[in-house]
Design a protein that fits this description.
Helix content: 25-40%
Order of helices and strands: EEEEEHHHHEEEHHH
CATH superfamily of the largest domain: Recombination protein O, C-terminal domain
Shape: elongated
Distance between the termini: 52 Å
CATH topology of the largest domain: de novo design (two linked rop proteins)
Bound molecules: zinc ion
Number of domains: 2
CATH architecture of the largest domain: Up-down Bundle
Length: about 250
Amino acid sequence: MRERVYRNEAIILRRTDFAEADRLLLIATPAGKRWVIAKGTRKMKSRLAGHIELFTYVQMMLAVGRHLDIVTQSQIVDSFPVLRSDLTRLGCGFYVAELYDRLTAEAEENPLLFRLLVETFQSLDRSPTPELTLRSFELHLLHILGYRPQLHYCVVCNELLTPDADRYSPSLGGVLCPNHRTADPHALPLSEATFRLLRYLQAQSVAAGETLRISSATRQQAADLLRASIRHLLERDLKSAEFLNHLLSSQ
Ligand SMILES: [Zn+2]
């Protein structure tokens, strides 16, 4: 049985007004995502109000409620101030939150995924290239959920791939060798630079992208390939991806 009161690390992914003065929060935790309620937090005098901001990393005390668990205390571990004050980074935050929400079920324990979220928000908060943080996040997320894109062996014949491989198949789940480059008529072009970038990001921690200098053509191709993989998985596009494209293209 669960304790009546328990402590949770959490990242607040969505926030919505509820009833007279309450807020509902979608939180990601090591024990999975869940909706909880923060009572009275829209009142002027609420002590909790400043500690349940969107896209903050917090330590929460929760009480088990009949329907939703109730936030009784919250303390900020990291408020990601740069991320939350920059429109492009915020757009990245919405994208990360939506992707996580769409690809996970409620109360599905996954501490590894929670750690990835924390590292991703930390990197979005400080990286000069938040866009590459998103590519790292996508690659690691796909890996943790069991959809790791295959970047080392041909997805048709399982031969070790060489740098001359130039097609990526979202539906087959990875790169095609030169012999099988026509195996999927919907396979997308893959340049050598993009191939190298994806392999590097897949093998490194999320922060690894922060020091890279990558041409915009390569960044765009990496984004297109991973977006196609995610679209294939979800069978449609994410709302926040459109918004984010708009922000990035208007810079
Ligand atoms: Zn092959």
